[in-house]
## 1
Amino acid sequence: MGEIFKRTVPDVPLAWTGERLTNSAGPQVEIEHLHRYFVARTLCRGLDVLDIACGEGYGSAFLAQTARSVIGVDVDQATVAHASATYAEPNLRFLEGDARRIPLPDGGVDAVVSFETIEHLYEHDAFLAEVRRVLRPGGRFVVSSPERDVYSPTGAASNPYHVRELTRAELVALLSGAFVHVALQGQRPILGSALVTESPARLARNAMLTFERRGADRFEASEGLSRP
């Protein structure tokens, strides 16, 4: 059996406006956000962590299950108050603050987690400079942002809360200017079945194959995840 971990759900969730995930959001939006935090929960085990733009606080609570300490920071005072009241743990606290002026000292954390934040800001360089400032040497930055060409194709309605979306290439260039090591993963919500290699790595193909229904009588086969 794998690791079983708990999710705390507030008695009265914050209203879903589209700006930040709350427990009253729809299931597709929810599973995308939860998946990212589940991965970060593993990456941040035993570390001192900053969850910047933590929103409602559910993600910070997941991180606190494995991290040594977690500080969740959000710009909205009411959201911070809600998070503090809902997710009370000895190693977890919440602060009001701006991602471009993080209220932490230099070198205060081992990891910074920032999911779906950077597209809400115009000053990307200032944000990354703050992330670098609060990270200890050898620290890690776990970040996500929607791929502009997939999330906001020409003719699609724009997200009113997004100030400056990035393409995949632009995100890589931005991160590479601030960090020596950059590794990417693509994400898409999917409904279906998973076949996962259990053989030793030397016997397994390196490529991940995905198959997607593209109509009543058509399927698409791809190496890797198409349109993440």
Note: The chain has a mean pLDDT of 88.
## 2
Amino acid sequence: MTLACIIIDDEQPARDELAYLLSAHGDVRVAGEADCVSGAVKAISELEPDFIFLDIQMRGGNGFDVLSGIEGMTRPPLVVFITAYDEYAVKAFDTHAVDYVMKPFSPERLDRSLDRVREMTSLKKDVQIRDALNHLVQQSNTAKKVPVAYKGRILLLDPDQIVFCQYRDKTILVHTRKSTHALHGIHTMDQLEQHLGAGRFFRNHRSTIVNFDQIKEFSPWFHGKYHIKMKDSRATELVVTRDRVRQFKKLLGI
């Protein structure tokens, strides 16, 4: 039995590398490729692959936008996430995806992922796959509340209220447009990044996570860094570190 797949990634070298590694597997056929959300939804609808390799971050949207676009398919594909960045975010979804594979691709890791695809394909029922796909979409669309300390009580913030979060003096501070609160019950920035999930939050620095929708303006800065200004009442200025600039620009679509 030959399994047809589509590779969805906005970087040609990444698609080429994955296609090359897949060529070593006689029972896997690359039926198509896509480099954007709309192209991916069209290719999946037309080609009806058995499974897809789906990048999380893409220009003009993300992998979860693709899942939303194919939510109503009669015969949905299995999903294998591929990503260079969002390991913690992807772990929040991997119970309903077949697998996730980190870039750069390892042949051994890809082999294990394909074994899972083969196993799931032999057992799968279209209804079960649709249920899993629907759950992925619901998770991506449902942001978790963020607990913070407030006047001796615990206040639950909607993620949309958050401008940025910052680790300072052994405390994670959550900044809204007009106030600042100490985070409650989440103790590390990695845990907070996982809690917020894949979406509009971006780790611009090891000690800072910003809400992408709350960035007012940005500009290139010294030594390959970027300077960003937030929309809070203080117009807080933050830095995108050099190692995170590539992902920042990718989210902007530039």
Note: Residues 91 and 194 are 8 Å apart (CA to CA).
## 3
Amino acid sequence: MGAPAVALVSIGDELLNGTSVNTNAAWLGRILASEGARVTRSVTVGDDPAGIVKAVQREAAESDAVICTGGLGPTEDDRTRNALARVVGRELRQDDSVVAWLRRRFESRGREMPASNLRQALFPEGAVVLANRLGSAPGFLAEGDDAVVVALPGPPAEMRAMSEEALLPLLRDRWAGRLAPVAHRVLRTTGVAESELADRLEEFGVQQGVALAYLPSTRGVDLHLRATDEPALEETAARVSAAVGENVYAEGGSDLVEVVAMALRERGWRLATAESCTGGLLAQRITAFAGSSDYFLGGLIAYSNEAKTALADVPAGVLEAHGAVSAEVAEALASGARARFGAEAGVGITGVAGPGGGTRDKPVGTVYVAARTPEADGVRVLRLVGDRAAIRERAAQAALDLLRRML
């Protein structure tokens, strides 16, 4: 019969009007795909009962299961349970054991249960109740004529816990023999464009049965490889990594900061930074990780020319001769950071983040990054694209990557 097909229906006006970001569908998609299910479609609808019914019926006609999130709260605008009861053709019935559980839950908090919470004890007749240990809204699984229909709560923490603890075990039993768990590898790259990666890998050819996807961001391109055959996946991942070369900085979810931190710790070196156009973004990224005090001494934000001279000891003559946005100033910032903090490694960044300030010779997106260590010096000129935020993000990533390659 092949892998079971699953459709996702996200419910809530707040998802349509932008008040809330829909992270549930992305999480469910990853989890279901890793289990070996085939996610065929993800749609979002508002809190309109007719719209919910129409969307679920449409997806049920082409799926083995329709998983809905949201609309299980105690208020009048939570309409999912009523709509799904219509889809499966069952009356809503009160589950007295759930009523008792709800009362105990409120009593344990020293409160009396509001009458409105009784809505959360209503389920389509014959449905399997899915326990919610983090909230007051149990979910349920109900048999429809075409597909299994599942209702999960909207709050992400509740939805994830219920999925892992209650829903997935049911689906594994139901689809025993149809699920082929999918192995997944991620190669993280930086300093190379998505199109260039595609050109490098076009002649390489991905082994049959292994899927390769490119996920670009301002920090680089993540290469996602999936396969049901783990040995084939491992072999392909190794070959892709070799083809991409030094642009691969990690496997899995490791951040570039973590890679640099490991190299610094191995040498017993400490790092200091001096930033202009990134305004402390690099230091913020470094200190976002616990334990950064082991290797990071501090950072300077030297935005004006006067600050570059006063804080990072950039010679006034260098600024006058080459301008604030130059390789020479980036190198002086890296040296100044090392000297100011007594660090073995120093990084300097200077550039034009925009949207104004560019010139013909140094247009917006021109950034110089430099790094200095006891073993090597390096400087790089970048021509970055995007808005101000993207240019700053890419500049910080490029500075980290330069230091990584030097280490």
Note: The longest strand covers residues 38-45.
